[in-house]
User: Fold this.
Amino acid sequence: MEPDFELLSEKNLLEDPFAQFAAWLGDARRWAEMDYPEAAVLSTVSPEGLPEGRVVLLKAADERGLVFYTNMLSPKGLALKARPEAAVTLYWPKLMRQVRAAGPVLPVSDSEADVYWKSRPREAQLGAWASEQSAVLESRAVLEERVAAAAASFTGEVPRPRHWTGLRLEPRFIEFWQDGRHRLHDRFRFTRGPAGWGAVRLYP
Assistant:
């Protein structure tokens, strides 16, 4: 059965942008026919001032912000250390919906990072130890040797590397876009102000 969503309007837009995001993400999980509906393009600015983008997986989304995890020695980790601001974009082609958000990025607490780390499969934990993310790799065999060495080093519980943690983007704005006929799309932008969140409709 195909989804049949009503037009995005002032009438059905939720007052809380995080509730609206949760509703749309729930629709995406049910209808988008994607392996990873939580996939988001994370855009940053490198220490040299160059724009960069890559896909990350959002692991939490609530009134505190949007959370993803990474190796802080990676290019995105170094970029966010130098300039802790970022934007994320999620797009669900099957639903013809997009969400954008941008704002400062702060590390999650160690306890929060530890909880998520322990939920990961052991193989993924070993991979985080073995991979020097984005560094030049001589061959696949070298990577597999490093994974094997990590497995031999951690015969029991695999500890979280100090350089691996979560980051929370605290949106200054969240924008919801839904495709419309004749390219007359519906767009609403929530902006955080002193009194809370307020929404306005934008031209397509």
